[in-house]
Amino acid sequence: MNYTDTLFSPLPINFQSDDSSPVWLNKADNAWQLTATTMVAMQSVPGLVILYGSMVKKKWAVNSAFMALYAFAAVLLCWVLWAHNMSFGVRLTPFVGRPGFAMTPNILHQYAGYYVPKADYVYFQFVFAAITVILLAGSLLGRMNFYAWMLFVPMWLTLSYSVGAFSIWASAGFLEKHIIDYAGGFVIHLSSGIAGFIAAYWVGPRQSHDRQHFPPNNIIHMLGGAGFLWLGWTGFNGGSPFAANQIASLAILNTHVCTATSLLVWVSLDMIVYKKSSVIGAVQGMITGLVCITPGAGIVEPWAAILMGASSGSIPWYTMMVLHKRSPIFQSVDDTLGVFHTHAVAGVLGGLLSGFFAKSNLLRMMYRNDHYGPGLLYCIFEGNPRKGLKQMGYQILGALFIIVWNVVATSLICIFISKIVDLRMKEEDLDIGDDAVHGEEAYAIWGDGERPSAYRRHIRIPSICRRQK
Fold first, then answer.
1. Helix/strand/coil percent split, the chain, to 5
2. Rounded to whole angstroms, how far apart are CA atoms 436 and 450?
3. What is the rounded distance in angstroms from the CA atom of residue 294 to the CA atom of residue 314?
4. Mind listing the pLDDT tens digit for each residue in 281-325?
5. What is the mean pLDDT of residues 84-99?
6. Subcellular location, in the record's words (predicted)?
7. Does residue 139 lie in a domain region?
8. Where are the alpha helices (H) located in 319-459, listed in sequence order?
9. Is 354 within the bounds of a domain?
10. From residue 51, how far is each of 45, 223, 253 by CA, in Å?
11. pLDDT category, 192, cuts 50, 70, 90?
């Protein structure tokens, strides 16, 4: 999703006499874009709300789901007030745009280079930003102080996400004309995986018994949340061309082919090594497939998507199931849901493979210029491997930039917040969980975790019972 056109002065809305639509508006593109954006939004709410609330211990279900819900709302306000223009507006530095209000009077005018209103663009980019922050939260579940999280979300959006998005996607970004990142393998997934891991280091681990025994409280609901995530990715990758065109169709097909391959490879490895097919493992394999195909969804052939799925189902499996257990670094940092493996590792893998498999004619259809690629594989076939190696070098540079920036920015944010409030919950709250933090529990079962006084205060006796008395 590299954007090569700059913002221009809004066009006057020249209404047609028959249906009050401006002459530039393509209704099919607009309808698809609004649909795709809604699908991406549903990946977060309810998708990740359900997934997080189900994938943790019962005592953390409310807190985990609420972290996702809060982030979605907070990012939206920050996005329209200043962060959208920092990510896609007028250049302030090579790394970031000038802050500004996005909902200006030209919000209904044509957005540069597309046949949809600017409102479509602002909202679509918001749901991308929101899901990035929510994915990051997966590393912090089960111990982060919610007040610290409330501060962390707007600060990280402003100082980290906006920088990555502007540098790689905005027309004035210093890496925009070099990096192939169709829909966010670097900007979204690598940044969330690295930032989540670094934030988990600063927040500290869960209690030892929670870290050693942390079963999902509802696997069926977990699969429901995962389903929202998988199917919502149709809009994630299919909406990135901002048109109902051939690239959108190819991106959707590649997305699901890669994801299915990755899931099956992950499950197969679980069965070979552990002699059991893990449902949680299947979800992890699904996520790594979705992440891996994202930077190349509309610019690689379907056969390449299958190979990318095989890679994303095996390499992150190895880092999570083998390397994680042997590495002192991974053991010392408590990444609750393994976001580093599912997003950082799979995001880097997808970005590099996109630089390898990107096809020239698909790149031209997507970007309408010759700034990118083709991938190393096609350059070898064309007898010009140097050009392909140059593109791979840019892909590595993009990954390194995102990694370094997120390590620095996330660390500074966590250190700053720790001077205001504790990053980690109090030990007594960690013992109790949701009831201590929010005064609520996920499942209202008679006498389960409820204090008698609280129960009596809220009980309501049906009127029919009172009459019988």
1. 70, 0, 30
2. 11
3. 17
4. 999 999 999 999 999 999 999 999 999 999 999 999 999 999 999
5. 95
6. Cell membrane
7. yes
8. 324-326, 328-332, 339, 346-357, 360-367, 376-381, 385-418, 427-432, 434-438, 452-458
9. yes
10. 10, 7, 24
11. very high
Distance (Å) of CA 293 to CA 21, 125, 152, 187, 304: 36, 19, 29, 14, 10
Contact partners, residue 310, CB within 8 Å, separation at least 6: 261, 262, 265
Q: What is the pTM of this model?
A: 0.90
Residue 448 falls inside a structural domain? no
With left for phi above 0 and alpha for psi between -120 and 50, is residue 7 left, alpha or beta?
A: beta
What pLDDT, on the 0 to 100 scale, is given for residue 1? 53
Instruction: Name, in order, each residue with C-beta under 8 angstroms of 265's C-beta and a sequence gap of 6 or more.
Output: 285, 309, 310, 312, 313, 314, 317
CA angle 360, 315, 359 (to 5 degrees): 5
**Residue-wise pLDDT tens digits, 345-391:** 999 999 999 999 999 999 999 987 777 889 999 999 999 999 999 99
Determine phi and psi for 15, rounding to 5 degrees.
Answer: -75, 140
The Cα 279–Cα 58 span in angstroms is 18
- Please give the angle made by the CA atoms of 398, 172 and 2, to the nearest 5 degrees: 55
What's the CA gap between 118 and 227, in Å, rounded? 30
Q: Rounded to whole angstroms, how far apart are CA atoms 426 and 467?
A: 46
Distance, CA of 4 to CA of 102 (rounded, Å) = 19
Domain extent, residue 53, equals 27-438
Q: pLDDT per residue over 147-180, tens digit each?
A: 999 999 999 999 999 999 999 999 999 999 899 9
- The count of structural domains within the chain is 1
The closest of 423, 425, 436 to 62, measured between CA atoms, is 436
Q: Is residue 450 part of a domain?
A: no
Q: For a pLDDT cut of 70, what percent of the chain falls above it?
A: 91
Distance set, CA 273 to CA 154, 160, 181, 268, 269 (Å): 42, 39, 34, 9, 6
